[in-house]
Amino acid sequence: MRRSGLRLLACRNSGGEKGTVRGPSYRSLALACASLLLLSGGSVAPASAAEQPPRLVALDSGQPDPAKDARVAAFDRFLREKVAEGEFIGIAVAIVDKGHLSLVKGYGRRSQVDGGQVDDQTVFRLASLSKGFASTVTGLMVKEHFVDWSTPVRQVLPKVSLGASRNNVTVGDLVSHRVGLPHNAYDDLLEAGVPPTEIVSRLSKLPLACPPGSCYGYQNVAFNLVAPVLEARTGVGYADLVQKHIFKPLYMHRASIGMAGLQKDDNWARPHLRIGERRWREVTVKPAYYGVPAAAGVNASARDMAKWLMAQLGMAPQAVPQDVLETIHKPRVNTPKELYRARPRYEGVKSARYGYGWRYYDINGVEVVWHAGVVQGYIAQIVMVPEQKSGIVFLTNGYSQTFPSLMPAYLETFIDGVKTRGLVLNGFPSKTQVAGNDSEQPVAGGD
């Protein structure tokens, strides 16, 4: 018994030294430890109640009352009006304000054909919001020593070449778009149906845009190489890895990767194209970007995304530790075009940069972490201010000209220190007119 206890202690302390990368020998040890724990009756103490995320479990149902906060009521009213005017076919929103869930709700229709209503459980494609999931699961695997941000891609995938001048590209370079390729390299081939593996083999023929690690060039095909890197190092498929380390511990019950997950039941938003004023045409789902799951493969509901927001705001450290968040949110490369877009919208924009899977604005000293995603018939956006424990998610199944003004309106209305340049939507109260929101948990049984 004493010897068994010593072995159990060794298993508990077998996490490895900081900075080491786990290989097959570590995985063998992990399996041996798991077997020993089972044989010993599973005598490792379960997580205490304090280590569980009860707030995320509580988010499984219930709807906060928008009327308790004038800002939330204004967003709610505005979205209902815009759907009624035909500006959106369907939209779902989640708002976390100063650590409290303030809104999680759907508006409009998930399909023009069958008329089904969007609710907080309706599943949408997230498109490039998937990149934040990829960087987060990579950060978790770095923390577990399966890989490192500085690991060369070629070291893990020796048969993959991005070209002689790019063969020193690292995992961190992939997820921050610093690979030295032209912007959106070969996205046209992906949309034309060329298999991603074949497209990867052509990347080496593209000219060097800049030395790897030194400049920004947004990618989808190259970004997705982080998926096979993680698969090679962990021995687990990418979708299963995200399910195990993100969806399951965050109780994101309807989140998935791939087209089958999008369409697993009838409550999913069909894609639409706008063909005129108040006129929409439902179209078929284009599968191309599901072929690059780390870049654009995730689906989720607004209810799921409320939990994701909380995790990214540091409110689920058991699942996504603070050091992982600080690493992935940290800006790493300038994004000049985004700076050009931001300056006409916000006063005091100091920088626009990209971290690991996340965009970053410094607006008058306020650090805004965000990302947008677009595929045919869908557009999504997530915006966060971690210091203020606040953020918002928009999911839609059709592009609207109103959509670009939603992020500025949110930041102006909810975030202390941010001022837009006249782009705030009419009907939103000023910060000083806001009523208090003293409801910490959602009220059971809302719409």
Q: How much β-strand is present in the residues?
A: 15-25%
What is the rounded distance between the termini?
Answer: 57 Å
CATH architecture of the domain at 53-123 and 252-278 and 298-433: 3-Layer(aba) Sandwich
Q: Which structural class should the secondary elements be placed in?
A: alpha+beta
Number of strands: 13
* Order of strands, widest sheet: 2-1-13-12-11-10-9-8
Shape: globular
DSSP summary: helix tally: 17
CATH class of the domain at 53-123 and 252-278 and 298-433: Alpha Beta
Radius of gyration, in Å, reads: 22 Å
Order of helices and strands: HHHHEEEHHHHHHHEHEEHEHHEHEEEEEH
Helix coverage percent: 25-40%
CATH fold label of the domain at 53-123 and 252-278 and 298-433: Beta-lactamase
Spans of 5+ residues with little confidence (pLDDT < 50)?
Answer: 1-20, 24-52, 434-447
Biggest pleated sheet:
8 strands, antiparallel
Fold topology:
Elements: H1 2-12, H2 24-39, H3 54-58, H4 70-84, E1 90-97, E2 100-108, E3 123-125, H5 130-143, H6 153-156, H7 171-175, H8 187-191, H9 196-202, H10 226-234, H11 238-247, E4 256-257, H12 259-262, E5 272-276, E6 279-282, H13 293-296, E7 298-301, H14 302-312, H15 322-329, E8 333-334, H16 336-342, E9 349-354, E10 359-363, E11 366-375, E12 378-385, E13 390-396, H17 406-414
Antiparallel strand pairs: 1-2, 1-13, 3-7, 4-7, 5-6, 8-9, 9-10, 10-11, 11-12, 12-13
Helix pairs in contact: 1-2, 5-11, 5-15
